[in-house]
Write a structure and sequence with these properties.
The complex is a heterodimer.
Chain A lengths: L5 E6 L2 E6 L4 H8 L25 E6 L12 E2 L9 E4 L4 H14 L17 H9 L22 E3 L9 H9 L6 E3 L6 E3 L13 H5 L5 E3 L12 E6 L8 E7 L2 E7 L13 H6 L7 E5 L23 H5 L9 H4 L18 H6 L3
Parallel strand pairs in A: 1-5
Antiparallel strand pairs in A: 1-2, 3-4, 3-5, 6-9, 7-8, 10-11, 10-13, 11-12
Helix pairs in contact in A: 2-3
Chain B lengths: L17 H5 L1 H15 L23 E3 L14 H5 L5 E7 L12 E9 L8 H5 L5 E3 L14 E2 L1 H4 L8 H8 L6 H6 L1
Antiparallel strand pairs in B: 1-4, 2-3, 3-5
Chain lengths: 361, 187
């Protein structure tokens, strides 16, 4: 390959040197922090992703050293490559802030406000985007778009009403698995992610479409309604898997593994694709070798109300008083929540009233 | 030493005079103050015969609300448990079956919901966090009891009666026709 020249690009008054052909977004991510534009559809691990959601719009105030004219419109930074001497404004530009608020409003037009029910709440990119860049209210007065329920197999739950049509899952299925089993059918407002003739997605890596989905449109049915993500403790773990790298994040509450996901980097992108067996079948702590607590952003709700280390503090009271203390109330004898003989994490699909009735006796 | 306020007075340690050493004038003076209070309006209420009127913002025992059709509003989103500073709330969610649509408002509901009233500090954060208007703090106390285990309130203990099917219980729960007795006593 020919030598690629390095280009100097200034983003929000910070200059960074990147090889030619790098997108503005990748250059901004090199600087990091708030300067990196938010993305809903772009995924660095997927070829051809980006350019659909327009959340990463930036203002190019100087085209390049040779042609210093500013670009007339805001540019999608995930698809625009840098030029030498380019100057880009992201958070320092009022135009960008305004445009981004508009984009969020458009993305939320048909998105239902069912975060209390949605399993993605707490780690949802659209939720974060709405909080950071959106406006408080909506001006949309019409019926929101709804779809007939469509099943993508017994392990993956599709909620088409929540979909923002980022095409990430379609690209994942196309590039990761040999056979494309689902895609986008219909056009415009009717466009929906679907598989023809209700085919089940049964490729062994297809579970990764859950991780790439920025919203709660694709969720894990084995985790459905079991718990909220902020009550779980993410732990980096691995196992000897013949099909994939086996490096995952397990989401524990106590010793129960509620969910297994791929490890994600600081941009919320999957580090290593994992196979369906790791994701859906291995729901015991003994299946995994726990390495460390996954690093979670200090501002994330997942960080709330828990201690982020692996050591369990030792009970010292028995040693000091020389006998077991007499408890006035053992909460486990009274409480009907988290009963010993009912492990929600072991139930195949979402729990329903039958699970709660059978186990009571 | 420098004093914090100018109200402090030095204790008078001079020996008592003859009249003071009799103590009687001081006793009479003290009894006078006591007697004066016999004819004043009492500052206390004789609870439980007389009940104080609650302020409308009083934060008491929790109530789980239903919607107009009598379906449970709670979807077990866990925001109350997250907001709870005392970690008193626990819950387990379940998916609504098709035949249960008249029971629960959303496709997910709280199959188990418990508040440990021993831990609860009645701060009202749960009420504030609830996105579904499902939990409210009512104008009543938590009844006292001898056993600690009676203070673990399950969903059934807090759920408001269905206003369509259990009309009488619902009216009773609203407590509208049970006036606070304090007003009857003093007005």
């Amino acid at each position: 390959m020919a030598d690629v020249p390095n280009f100097k690009v200034t983003i929000d008054n910070i200059t960074v040197e990147v090889p030619a052909g790098t997108t503005i977004l990748e250059a901004a991510r090199k600087i990091g922090g708030d300067i990196a534009p938010p993305t809903m559809c772009y995924y660095s691990k997927l070829k051809g992703s980006g350019g659909k959601c327009r959340t990463c719009l930036v203002e190019v105030s100087k085209g390049s050293e040779k042609d210093p004219r500013p670009m007339p419109k805001l540019m999608a930074s995930c698809r625009t490559t840098v030029m030498d001497g380019m100057e880009v404004k992201n958070i320092t530009s009022d135009r960008v802030k305004d445009a981004r608020a508009g984009v969020v409003e458009f993305l939320l037009i048909n998105h239902p406000l069912d975060c209390p029910i949605c399993d993605q709440a707490g780690e949802c990119k659209l939720q974060d985007l709405g909080y950071d860049h959106g406006k408080a209210g909506t001006r949309y007065e019409f019926q929101r778009r709804t779809f007939p329920k469509h099943n993508l197999g017994d392990k993956i739950q599709l909620h088409m009403t929540r979909c923002i049509l980022c095409y990430r899952c379609v690209m994942t299925a196309e590039q990761l698995t040999k056979k494309r089993e689902h895609g986008v059918v219909d056009r415009g407002d009717h466009a929906q992610i679907a598989s023809y003739l209700d085919q089940h997605l049964d490729n062994e890596f297809i579970g990764n479409i859950i991780d790439v989905c920025p919203v709660g449109a694709l969720t894990d049915r084995t985790f459905r309604f079991k718990n909220r993500v902020w009550f779980l403790k993410p732990l980096n773990a691995h196992r000897d898997c013949p099909t994939c790298s086996g490096k995952v994040t397990i989401w524990n509450r106590g010793d129960e593994v509620f969910r297994v996901t791929a490890r994600k980097d600081q941009w919320g992108e999957v580090e290593d694709w994992i196979c369906n067996e790791c994701r859906f079948e291995k729901k015991k702590t003994s299946d995994w070798v726990i390495e460390e607590v996954s690093p979670v952003s200090r501002h994330s709700v997942i960080n709330q109300n828990k201690y982020f280390n692996l050591d369990k503090p030792k009970e010292t009271i028995d040693e000091i008083i020389g006998k077991k203390p007499r408890l006035f109330l053992d909460i486990h004898n009274v409480s009907k929540v988290n009963e010993k003989n009912r492990d929600l994490s072991m139930i195949e699909g979402p729990a329903n009233s039958k699970d709660f009735k059978n186990k009571q006796q | 030493m420098q004093t914090l306020t100018n109200r402090s007075e030095n204790v008078d340690r001079s020996p008592m005079t003859f009249v003071e050493s009799l103590y009687l004038p001081a006793i009479v003076k003290g009894m006078g103050i006591t007697l004066k209070h016999f004819f004043k309006k009492p500052a206390t209420y004789s609870y439980p015969e007389v009940k104080r009127p609650f302020s409308p913002v009083f934060r008491g025992l929790h109530v789980l609300n239903r919607d107009e059709e009598g379906r449970e509003r709670c979807t077990a989103c866990g925001l109350c448990a997250l907001a709870c500073p005392a970690e008193a709330i626990t819950m387990e969610a379940a998916e609504r079956l098709p035949e249960e649509e008249n029971l629960y408002r959303e496709e997910k509901y709280a199959a188990k919901y418990e508040i440990n009233m021993l831990r609860c500090i009645f701060c009202g954060m749960c009420e504030e966090a609830c996105p579904k208007d499902a939990i409210y703090l009512s104008e009543t106390f938590t009844p006292s009891d001898y056993a600690r285990k009676k203070f673990i309130y399950a969903k059934e203990d807090m759920l408001i009666p269905n206003k369509n099917t259990e009309k009488e219980d619902y009216e009773k729960a609203l407590g509208k026709d049970v006036p606070t007795t304090a007003s009857a006593f003093f007005d």
